[in-house]
Amino acid sequence: MKSVHPETNRIHAEYRQLGTDTGRLFCSNPPLQQIPTQQQVRSCFVPTEGNRFIIADYSQIELRVAAQISQDQRMIEVYQNGEDLHRLTDSLLTETSITEVTDEQRQAAKAVNFGLLFAMEAKGLRSYALNTYGVEMSLDRASRFKQRFCDSYAGFAAFLQNSANRKVKQFRTLSGRIRHFTQGYASLPNALNTPIQGTAADIIKHALADLPAQLIDTRAQIVACIHDEIIIEVKERHAETAKQILDQVMVATGQHYLTDVPVVVEAKITDSWAEK
């Protein structure tokens, strides 16, 4: 309760545009990006009486950015066809029909996709899968998954190898923003993190900049930004209109940079943060 302002009865967190090395927004006092996802916690965050929250987030935005940057044709085609990359990855890794991939298998593929996106080795992937997604895999299985991932997504594997071989002191995101390395050359994780995570950060910042003017007639207000998610608050009578505007602005800003990969936004009108 100490974070609630005594006059406005709201939480006024502090956001820094360049609070991380890749350019992602950094939130503190309190760190809203670290609020637990459990329903009993997030249900405490509610709009003013008579208002609704609209919560929208980019679907698999970092994977879509990776597909655009690496020009991996299989990844691009999956998104162009409106398919689920996580299910396809598990299908390729386990040689299972994509229609037979279970939710548990998809969760394992999700760990592989996001883990190998930033060049994790088998040991790191095994730990990441367990700690982040609750998926157990042996070291041998993690190693086999990494090899099959590279075989399946040859374009991204080539991009990964090229990034590993280059000695570079600066990188650009797709928006043209530059990150300089003043001490030594960029490591492989940084060589991937900066253009991929950095571009995703640029996309959502672009959306945040465009939204106020587009929402002016609804009087909706941006109340939070959590990684790839934007939360706005609006009077209930304007909720549907504001939802459409939020969706359209987020898609348009994403498509500005991802010219080959469709951008998808998932938006929902809710009565609390827990209802996402």
In short:
The chain is an alpha+beta fold and 276 residues long.
SSE topology sketch:
Layout: E1 14-16, E2 26-28, H1 39-42, E3 51-58, H2 61-70, H3 73-80, H4 85-94, H5 103-117, H6 122-133, H7 139-152, H8 154-165, E4 170-172, E5 178-180, H9 188-215, E6 221-226, E7 229-235, H10 239-257, E8 265-270
Helix pairs in contact: 2-8, 2-9, 4-5, 5-6, 6-7, 9-10
Labels describing this entry:
276 residues, alpha+beta, DNA polymerase, domain 1, 4-stranded antiparallel β-sheet, two-stranded antiparallel ribbon, 10 helices, 8 strands, globular
Plain-language structure description:
With 276 residues, this protein is α+β, with helices and mostly antiparallel strands. The chain has helices at 39-42, 61-70, 73-80, 85-94, 103-117, 122-133, 139-152, 154-165, 188-215, 239-257, and strands at residues 14-16, 26-28, 51-58, 170-172, 178-180, 221-226, 229-235, 265-270. The strands form three sheets. A four-stranded antiparallel beta sheet has the order 6-7-3-8, with helices on one face. The protein has a two-stranded antiparallel ribbon with strand order 1-2. It has a two-stranded antiparallel sheet with strand order 4-5. A hairpin with a 2-residue loop joins strand 6 and strand 7 (229-235). The longest helix has 28 residues, at 188-215.
